[in-house]
Amino acid sequence: MCRFSHRKLPVGRWTTLIALASGSLGALASAAERPSQGAPPVYGYKIVNTYPHDRTAFCQGLLFADGVLYEGTGQYGRSTLRKVDLKSGKVLQLFRMNSQLFGEGITLHGNDLIQLTWRNQVGYVYDKQTLEPRASFRYAGEGWGIASDGQQLIMSDGSDTLRFLDPKTYQVVRRVAVRSQGRPVERLNELEYIDGVLYANVWETDYVVLIAPATGEVIGWIDLRGLLGPLERLHPDAVLNGIAYDAKDKRLFVTGKFWPKLFEIKLVPKS
Asked: Which of 107, 109, 134, 245 is most buried as measured by Cβ atoms within 10 A of its Cβ?
C-alpha cells in the first residue's frame, strides 16, 4: 500500500476501532469454526526473540518457509522480493521489480511464490528458488495483502472485503465482508493464514485482526501497541505491517515498514 503521506484515521474511525478491540493458536482455530458470542477477545503479546530487520525495507508482505524468511517491499523504484536470513537480517537473495511497479503482499501457494502490486493491477509468480518471475496475472482494483489457505488465494485491497481467488485462473470465486459485531473492519492489509484463521494487519494501527475465513467474522484482535517504541519509528510511515508463521516450530513473527527489528511473539490473554 502506498504511503507517500502519513494520513491518519478520522477520530470517529479510531474510536470505533478501539471499541471493537476491547490464547493459543489452537483455540483461535476452534473459534473460527463456530459463531462468536459477545465481543471478540483481545490478545496481548510476549516477546520471545528479537531479530534485526532492514530499516530501509518498506515491508509489504512477509512469510516464512523452509527455514527462510521471504519479504516483499514496496515504493516505486524500490520494490523488491527478497530472501532473508532470520537471525542476522542479512538479505540472501534479492529481485528488484521494475521501477514502474509498486510491490505489495506476498504468499506461497505450493511452489508458487506470488507477489501483488498496488495500483498496477498485476500480480507476479516467481520461482521460489531463484526469485525469477515466470508468470503474471491480472486483477481489478488495488492489491494490498495476499495469503493462501492451501486451496485458494485470499486477497485484500484496503477495504473491508476479502477476495478468494482460484489459484489456477486467478479469478475471483467469492467475496467475504469482514465484520466485528456487525461493524465493518476496513483497511485490511498484509495477510497470513495460520491454522484455519486469517490474520490481517489493520493499516496505520498497531492491531492485527483475526478472521474466520468462511464467514468474515472477527474472532479476535491482537493489540501490539508498544512493540516498537516511538524513538525507533524514525519515518512517519513506520507502521506495523508484516506477519509470518513458522508452521514447523509454531513461531509467529511480526514487523513493520522501516522497522529496524522483527519480533517473534507469543499471544497472551489481555486483561
From this structure: 107
Question: At CA 147, angle to CA 175 and CA 5, rounded to 5?
Answer: 90
162 touches 188 (CB < 8 A): yes
What phi, psi does 228 have (nearest 5°)? -120, 125
Residue with cell 464467514: 215
Distance CA 192, CA 190 (A): 7
- Find how far residue 247's CA is from the centre of its chain: 16
Q: What is the pTM of this model?
A: 0.88
Q: Can you list the pairs that 156-162 forms with residues at least 24 positions away whose Cβ atoms lie under 8 Å?
A: 156/105, 156/188, 156/189, 156/190, 156/191, 156/200, 158/1, 158/186, 158/187, 158/188, 158/189, 158/203, 159/186, 159/187, 159/188, 160/184, 160/185, 160/186, 160/188, 162/188, 162/198, 162/211, 162/213, 162/216
- Kindly list the domain boundaries of the chain, sorted by start residue: 23-269
Angle at 97 between CA 173 and CA 253, to 5 degrees: 70
Superfamily of domain 23-269, CATH level 4: TolB, C-terminal domain (2.120.10.30)
**Residues 47-77: tens digit of each pLDDT:** 999 999 999 999 999 999 999 999 999 999 9
Q: Which helix (H) or strand (E) holds 226?
A: none
pLDDT digit string, tens, across residues 76-130: 999 999 999 999 999 999 999 999 999 999 999 998 999 999 999 999 999 999 9
Tell me if residue 159 falls in helix, strand or coil.
Answer: coil
Q: Beta 68-73 vs 80-84: how paired, if at all?
A: antiparallel
